[in-house]
Design brief:
The complex is a heterodimer of chains A (about 230) and B (about 475). Chain A is α/β, with parallel strands linked by helices and about 230 residues long. Chain A has 2 domains: about 40 residues, no CATH class; about 170 residues, Rossmann fold. Chain A has 9 helices and 7 strands. In chain A, the strands form 2 sheets. Chain A has a 4-stranded parallel β-sheet with strand order 2-7-6-3. The C terminus of chain A is likely disordered. Chain B is of the alpha/beta class. Chain B has 3 domains: about 100 residues, no CATH class; about 160 residues, P-loop containing nucleotide triphosphate hydrolases (Rossmann fold); about 160 residues, P-loop containing nucleotide triphosphate hydrolases (Rossmann fold), CATH 3.40.50.300. Helix content of chain B is about 30%, strand content about 20%. Chain B contains 13 helices and 21 strands. In chain B, the strands form 5 sheets. A 7-stranded parallel β-sheet of chain B has the order 11-12-10-13-14-9-15, with helices on both faces. Chain B has a 6-stranded parallel β-sheet with strand order 16-21-20-17-19-18, with helices on both faces. In chain B, strand 20, helix 12 and strand 21 form a beta-alpha-beta unit. The radius of gyration of chain B is 26 Å and the shape is globular. The termini of chain B are far apart. Classes of the chains: A alpha/beta (about 230), B alpha/beta (about 475). The interface between A and B is medium-sized, with 18 and 26 residues. Strand 1 of chain A pairs antiparallel with strand 5 of chain B, so a sheet runs across the interface.
Chain lengths: ~230, ~475
């Protein structure tokens, strides 16, 4: 995915591509220093003001699932624009952060898949794109069996959902350590189902990482108008 | 006589269907994506096969001259051609490399596999019988302008109505609109701000009670029927193509219209071939004025308010280092005295700030003088309520950003601008702000103060223009 007329192959090479904040369209002042010049492959995609509106997640040591941000108003808006309005370019917003967070993981990265019909409807896989833009390699190991979405369900309904996934025929998970990746963790039902299938498939261990963590409670679930 | 047997005399046999009025009403003049159309797939497919619709891909790809620049994309919905706003990606639906337009994405994503439907069926007939119910009366100047506007539009000539704030611009539109409705024409009144749409709609409904009219803005509810009069935000014009016999652009100097080229193009795109466009504004841009001269548009100029009194002229007051003082939690003396005088005389007031952060820091300082003073900005959900409260006298004054620079009418309001030298206060903005004062016949004078840290060119330009308008308006 690249901006039209970038001219060069490999959009991450061309730092001049994004000159306006992807969220609020304010002109971006490039924060430059020697480190960024040589090391940083991920140019800023959003301005400081927009960045300040997101809330970092504090990982408590005993949590099974790691996340980067809380699901606050700014994040709700981001997800709405990215998933619902299908603004694929917004996958670049957190590319740098996701890359830094996952680059040293030794596990095999497994994204939570979409049902093929939903994938065609949305025209792209939101989780795959986040990983792709973050230059994190991944492998598809699971398949989604239902088009039913978790969004729109109450907490109880979500937790009562029957198994959503099956192992793919070509999946090789025996004895491997895996890291599941999804966009948002609310009740954990999705992750739990995926973990079960993977463990039954012979995986040695399954951990999880999501970009967003919903703050606990019914309110958080009711407040999220995620459509699919 | 030889009879030549002809097979397939398709044209002579009536095989068609009659287009349902509901579908025709919805699509007439509009350009809508197939997937978002509120009708069943089967119905749409049937109509498409009968050529009631023309299909256009949402994004056109044009080859560009030197192949260095690759392809040139063009969005058929919003007419954006800025290549930086197009994003290429691999699409799962069409299975190949696809492009979408980011410019109009918040109205629904247009990609190259999105299909746009343009109505190609029978057009509706608009009624010519309308009721005009308005009891007001015009001043001489208003009458003249209304006549000139009607004349221009009747002759399909573009027109500029340059009328100062409070001149009664909306009423001047009534005769012209009535004239067009009676001709069976379809009219659109476009304005950059949703607030103005919501303000104009009931006024037009009252003036033309029999006419079917729709209001279009973001999150507007669905309205049925074939609207002959459409009141919409300029963004909504993206949805129309060759739809209107006349387009009137109100507040043509407001944000975002002035900054967004494609909105300006949308106005021209929405009208039918040869249809006239009328611009109504208190502060025409120099670009517009040049066009008026070059292309010989009709032009009406009203430098006086409906009540006949001159515009109050702003005065300048230095307020050195006001931002530092407010930062330190101290309200500058002159500002405090001005506010106290307003409170003492029970005059409602607006205090304009250049930016939200500065205003937020100032609010608690003002609340020490009077606890009910509050602040308002564009994203404030209680904005309308607060303006109401000021109007009712429930609160003594409002701190605000430029969101209230236009459209608001409060009797006897006094106006102060803090930081009038800031870049955001262009001369147009300052003129509009000054236009908030003195609108009511009983209170034609209001105090307008520009508190500044150095007089800017824009401040001078605004003051000079107001003086000039007063001179023009009172020449005998």
């Amino acid at each position: 995915m690249k901006m039209a007329n970038s001219g060069k192959k490999g959009d991450w090479m061309n730092r001049r591509e994004i000159d306006h904040c992807l969220l609020c369209n304010a002109p971006l002042t490039i924060r430059m220093d020697w480190k960024r010049l040589f090391v940083n492959r991920f140019p800023q995609a959003i301005c400081q003001e927009c960045e300040g509106k997101f809330e970092r997640y504090r990982h408590e040591g005993n949590e099974e699932v790691d996340s980067l941000y809380y699901y606050n108003e700014a994040m709700q808006d981001y997800l709405h624009r990215y998933k619902f309005m299908r603004d694929v370019l917004l996958a670049k917003v957190f590319a740098g952060e996701i890359h830094r967070h996952l680059k040293n993981r030794k596990e095999l990265i497994v994204p939570i898949p979409m049902h093929p019909e939903k994938w065609k409807e949305r025209t792209f896989s939101h989780v795959d794109e986040l990983l792709r833009q973050a230059r994190i390699p991944f492998v598809h190991v699971l398949e989604k069996t239902t088009t039913e979405a978790q969004a729109g369900k109450s907490r109880e309904e979500r937790m009562k959902t029957p198994q959503l996934f099956v192992l793919r025929e070509d999946a090789q998970v025996e004895g491997k350590d895996l890291l599941l990746v999804d966009d948002i963790y609310t009740t954990g039902t999705t992750i739990r189902h995926a973990t079960q299938v993977l463990m039954e498939g012979g995986a040695k261990s399954v951990k999880a990482f999501t970009l967003i963590r919903a703050k606990g409670g019914q309110e958080a679930i009711k407040a999220s108008p995620l459509m699919f | 006589m030889k009879y030549i047997l002809r097979r397939n005399r398709e044209s002579k046999r009536y095989k068609g269907i009659i287009a349902e009025p509901e579908i025709r009403d919805f699509f007439l003049g509009k350009i809508w994506s197939r997937e978002h159309a509120p009708f069943s797939k089967e119905k749409l497919d049937c109509y498409i096969s009968r050529s009631f619709f023309k299909i256009k891909p949402a994004i056109s790809i044009k080859p560009s001259s030197p192949s260095l620049f690759g392809k040139r994309y063009f969005c058929n919905r919003c007419h954006n051609d800025n290549q930086r706003e197009f994003v290429e990606f691999d699409c799962a639906r069409c299975g190949k490399a696809c492009v979408y337009c980011r410019h109009c994405i918040n109205m629904g994503r247009m990609s190259c596999c999105t299909e746009l439907l343009v109505w190609n069926g029978p057009s509706g007939i608009f009624p010519k019988r309308h009721v005009f119910d308005w009891n007001g009366s015009f001043t001489v100047l208003q009458q003249q302008a209304a006549e000139e506007l009607r004349e221009s539009i009747g002759r399909k000539r573009n027109h500029l109505l340059h009328a100062v704030c409070g001149a009664g611009k909306t009423e001047i539109l009534f005769p012209a609109v009535f004239h067009c409705l009676r001709k069976g024409w379809r009219i659109c009144i476009a304005t950059p701000r949703t607030d103005v749409v919501l303000e104009l709609f009931p006024r037009f409904q009252k003036a033309f009670p029999n006419t079917i009219m729709h209001a279009y803005y973001g999150d507007a509810p669905e309205q049925k029927g074939l609207a002959q009069l459409v009141i919409a935000t300029t963004h909504q014009l993206y949805r129309f193509e060759k739809a209107f016999d006349v387009v009137i652009v109100d507040e043509a100097d407001a944000f975002p219209y002035t900054y967004d080229r494609s909105l300006q193009k949308a106005v021209w795109k929405a009208r039918k071939e040869g249809a006239p466009v009328a611009f109504v504004t208190a502060t025409p841009t120099s670009e517009l004025l040049t066009k008026v001269k070059k292309e010989r548009w009709g032009c009406s100029f009203i430098p006086r308010r409906y009540h006949g009194h001159p515009l109050p002229v702003p005065r300048f007051e230095p307020l050195w280092f006001y931002d530092r003082q407010i930062d330190k939690g101290k309200l500058p003396k002159k500002l405090m005295h001005w506010t106290k005088r307003r409170l003492g005389r029970e005059e409602p007031f607006f205090i304009f700030f250049p930016a939200i952060p500065l205003m937020e820091k100032a609010i608690p300082l003002f609340q020490e003088i009077h606890p009910d003073i509050c602040g308002v900005h564009a994203k404030d959900p209680e904005r309308k309520e607060k303006v109401m409260k000021l109007r009712n006298g429930e609160i003594p004054g409002l701190l605000t950003t430029t969101i209230l620079e236009r459209g608001v009418t409060i009797k006897n309001v006094q106006v102060a601008v803090v930081g009038a030298e800031s870049k955001i206060f262009t001369s147009g903005a300052l003129i509009q702000i000054s236009g908030r004062a003195g609108r009511h016949a009983d209170f034609p004078n209001g105090d307008i103060v520009f508190f500044h840290h150095g007089i800017s060119v824009e401040m001078d330009a605004a003051r000079n223009e107001i003086l000039r308008l007063n001179k023009e308006g009172f020449r005998t």
